[in-house]
Design brief:
single chain; alpha/beta; six-stranded parallel beta sheet; two-stranded antiparallel ribbon; 8 strands
Length: 259
Amino acid sequence: IVGWEGKTVIGTVGVNKRTNRQPSLIETARVIKDSGVENFVMYLHCQMRGEGFMGGWELDWMPKEFGVEDHIAFKPGQNEDRYFGRPNKAEVDVFSLPLPADKKEAEANLEKLGYIDILNLFDIYIDPAGAHGWGLPQCEAARCGVPIIMVDDGFARHEIFSDVVHMLAPTASEYWHTGAVLPLVSPKKMADAIMKMIDSEDMRRVYGAAGKAKFDKYKWQPTADYFAEKVVAADKFGAEMMAKLANRKVGKDVQDVEG
């Protein structure tokens, strides 16, 4: 549908900013190619040009400079929302899309896909970021059964993901402007991990199944129901407290009159 048939699709999702380290993935693609592996696509679901205050990158020239322009693909619709562009629900039935006759038609098909449909194109999810909060895109990829390779931050991601993803120990570190330590993994180490997972169907299956089993439990509805329950309880408590305060005032007024 998008011209990637028979290729290993290595994908990532994230805003184009310094901490997400998209250039390191373009360099990782070069290391993979130089190792003799040609049949792959590195898909970066981000804008080609990042925002300056976030330390974003000008990525558009890098694939050609690194000699991997045939292996790098970016989020379709570069003029759309910088985060995800398309809604989670596809605007079209993916099975109704025609098989593309050329690269231009393949890119047009990719632009029609919803976010979850794009995640389901991935064979491997790679996360090179030096800092994350919860890591929602990784959770969503895991729920799609995609095996994940991730930098071990020794913090939130380690706590949430370490038992179900392939964690990479940092090879270096730098500092964010806030003073936070950003763990880094070299392109060579990421490339080695990716190639190992490409070569091992069992590894992909085990990590994919483990991630899906864990994050199938993470659903919005129980959280929404719990939050709504607490809001109702808080409102009821507030009303009761206001009534007590009103009664106390009334009682005081009566005492004052009787006095």
